[in-house]
Amino acid sequence: MSARTDVSADARGSETPVINIIRPAELSSVLKQGLADFEAKPTHGVFLTLIYALIALFAALIGLGENFLPLLFPLVGGLALIGPLAACGLYELSRRREQGLNYAWYHVFDVARAPSRWGIAAMGCVLAALFVAWLMTAELLYGVFFAEPAPTELASLMQQIFMSPAGWQLLAVGSGIGFIYSVVVYMATVVSLPMMLHHKVGVGRAVMTSLKAVQANWQAMAMWYLLVIGLMLLGALPLFVGLGIVVPVLGHATWHLYRRAVTYRD
């Protein structure tokens, strides 16, 4: 029996995705389902979140040089751009728990055997490119608003950003551009990545389904986007420790959001 036998039943590419209507009131139930998945095996999500954060930080340090302090806030914000890719492991765990299958931590790597694994890999490359583009944009913006050398101490950076007119302008412009980046990624991935994990489907079809799901459920999807951003910010406040809980809960919950938003017919 194939190692991916339990997934093959989900990999029927001949089925047509059907967009369902989600009421905003259902989001609380979706979040509860995500929390239940996390509580079933909390160490799995914390481990995956830690690995994801370390990889992102390592990649940023290589690309940004020794003094990455001015890009600390854009780096944290940019994690949301590659977060959907890291969440694929959480989607797989939720899928397995939903089907009553083995829920061991190493099954996060089953993403490599997903029905549309090459599509997921392609989407990962796109998200990585957007992450780099965002950091380059943030670095350029910093140079536009501040001509002097970047501070090397966090206290000086905080004073520069939050206590000067130039810093306020940088925050306003940077937040606006970052919002555009994050909305584009959210709309393109909120359904497409779990869909490619679940079914054999091309990247284009998966992204179009995601966009249609957002359009059909714009109120619920907008509320979910704001909820994700708000919880990510809260999780980042206590020295980013809270992200070890927030990220896996949101990842599991997004799987259940997808399951409500999309069904299939032959």
Primary descriptors:
266 residues; mainly alpha; 12 helices; 71% helix; 3% strand
Protein architecture, described:
The protein is mainly alpha-helical. The chain has one domain (14-265). The protein has 12 helices and 2 strands. The protein has helices at residues 5-8, 27-40, 42-64, 72-86, 88-98, 117-145, 154-162, 165-189, 192-198, 203-216, 218-236, 243-261, and strands at 16-19, 262-265. It has a two-stranded antiparallel ribbon with strand order 1-2. α3 (42-64) packs across α4, α4 (72-86) packs parallel to α8 and α9 (192-198) packs across α10. It is globular, with a radius of gyration of 19 Å. Residues 1-12 have low confidence and may be disordered.
Distance between the termini: 26 Å
Pick out the low-confidence regions.
1-12
* Helix count, DSSP H or I runs of 4 or more residues: 12
Secondary-structure element series: HEHHHHHHHHHHHE
Give, in spatial order, the strands making up the sheet with the most strands: 1-2
Write a brief structural summary.
With 266 residues, this protein is mainly alpha-helical.
Please describe the topology of this protein.
Elements: H1 5-8, E1 16-19, H2 27-40, H3 42-64, H4 72-86, H5 88-98, H6 117-145, H7 154-162, H8 165-189, H9 192-198, H10 203-216, H11 218-236, H12 243-261, E2 262-265
Antiparallel strand pairs: 1-2
Helix pairs in contact: 2-3, 2-12, 3-4, 3-12, 4-6, 4-8, 5-9, 5-12, 6-8, 9-10, 10-11, 11-12
